[in-house]
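From the pipeline queue, job 12 of 40. The input is one protein chain; the requested action is below.

Action: predict structure.
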Amino acid sequence: MANLHGVLPYLVSPVDADGRVRTGVLGRLADDLIAKGVHGLTPLGSTGEFAYLNAQQREAVVRTTVEAAAGRVPVVAGVASTSTSDAVVQALTWQRLGADGILAILEAYFPLSDTQVESYFRAIADAVDIPVVLYTNPQFQRSDLSLDVIARLAEHPRIQYIKDASTNTGRLMSIMNRCGDTLGVFSASAHIPAAVMLIGGVGWMAGPACLIPEESVALYEHCRAGRWDEALALQRRLWRINEAFARYNLAGCIKAGLELQGYDVGDPVPPQAALPAADRAQVARILDEVRGA
């Protein structure tokens, strides 16, 4: 099974006004990110607007990413549904297309019990032969993963990682204490990656890494080598992106930044809206400051 670690950018999903995935743009972005040193690619994460795409669009995004990666780095593809059976079909499809791992996301309309939440993730892991990354984001999800459920799921041989997008870094420490080496913990944009690496994290999955891949990889390498003074100096600079982007629609912000870098990724999928001109200008200023500092 793939050993997942390091910087895995959450890819955007470039979709034109007619609903067609701009596969050429996505493929070029994936290829460029790999050339800049990222350790994997994650299509259909939050930045990838998974909640706004239909089945055909999702499949095109995963297929394109796998083909662009061409085995050079692992592809961890997002699976998200309110239905267990649909989630299993997605996971099996992504495995068939060549994904190296699954990022498992639970969408819920009605609240679910811990037992029901656990059964959803367990069904996905039972269905595939590749590693599964649990994803939890209590800011947006109606039903979250409790520490007890996480600990039980960590005993599954294919559930090997978690990306916890809560803003509670102490919760990450609790997960590490409960699960030990059986569950690798990835940071999210809501956390400070260097801090998560310091307490034992394995890397981070985040949209901003699409815009600053080289800087993100340098930060990871500083952390891995224990060069904490250099890591924290770089982290303080890069954190300005997270602070600023928290004010905007994430997909809109990352897409605007990529457009500024020459990628014709288009606007967010409606009913989301593109950033107004003033906000795009602010994104440009922030990127210039961070990359030019």
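Job complete. The mean pLDDT is 94.
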